[in-house]
Amino acid sequence: MRFAINHITAPKLSLEEFFDAAKSLGLTEVEIRNDLPDIVGTVSPEAVKQAAAKAGVKIISINALYPFNVWSGDLPDRAAALADYAAASGAEALVMCPLNDGRKISFDDLVTALKAMKPILDERGLTGLVEPLGFPISSLRTKKEALRAIEAAGGGSTYKLVHDTFHHHLAGETEFFPQQTGLVHISGVVDPAVAVDDMLDAHRVLVDDADRLENAGQIKALNDAGYTGPYSFEPFAAEVHALEDPVAAVRDSIAHIGKSI
C-alpha cells in the first residue's frame, strides 16, 4: 500500500516539520491545505516547492477548491488562483469539494462547473480530484453521480475521484471505482453513540480497531479491484490535532491497517 499524509493530521506542525514527519514515517507523498492549516494563504508556492524538494516528498494534492460546483461569483477567479498556486508549488492535483450547506445544485450546473474548470487544470498540467461529500446536506453525495457528470463534461482525461472512506460510508455507497480513483482519504469514527447521519468531520479520527466505517473492508475492496494509488490520512478531530506525538499515532494506525487487511 502507498500511504500518504494530509497536513490536517498534524496541523500544529510547520510545513517543514510536516514534511519531516512524513519522511520519519517512511512516506514520500503529502497533501497540503488552504484551511487547516492554511499553507496556501501563508507560504509562497516557491517556498513550498523548495521545502518539498529538500525533504524529498511529493505534493500529491492541495485541498481544496470549494464549492467547485457553483460556478459563479468569485469562484472562477479563486479556481484559477488556486490552480496557479498548485502548479507553482509542484503539486500534482487539486481537490474539488461540492457545496455542503443543504442547497441543491442541479446536474447541469455540476457539468457546467466541470467543463469550466477543465481548461484551467489542463493548461497547468493538473488533475482535478472530485470529492463527493456523503453528508445528508451535501449537493454531491456519491461517486457514481460525480462520474456521470465527469463523463457528460468530457472530463475523463482531466478528472479522477477521491474515495473518502468516511464519505463513502455516510453516503451508503456500495460501488467502488478503482480505475477512476486518483486518491483515497482514510479516517475512522469510533464514537459508539453517534448515528451515521449525524457523523461530522469532528468525529473523524485515525483508524484503529474500534473503527465503525469499515475502513479495512473498503481498502481491501479497492486493492482487490486494482487500485494502486495513495491512501492519505485525513482525520479532522480536535483530539487528533492535539496529540503530542502525531507521528507515533499515525505509525500505530498504519500498523493496524496492515494487520486488518
From TrEMBL:
One of its GO terms (molecular function) is isomerase activity. SUPFAM superfamilies: Xylose isomerase-like. Its EC number is 5.3.99.11. InterPro entries: IolE/XylAMocC-like, UCP036778_sugar_epimerase, Xyl_isomerase-like_sf, Xyl_isomerase-like_TIM-brl. It comes from the Bacteria. The keyword Acyltransferase does not apply. It holds the Pfam family AP_endonuc_2. It is an enzyme of class 5 (isomerase). Residues 19-257 form the Xylose isomerase-like TIM barrel domain. The keyword Membrane does not apply. Keywords: Isomerase. This is 2-keto-myo-inositol isomerase. Coiled coil: none annotated.
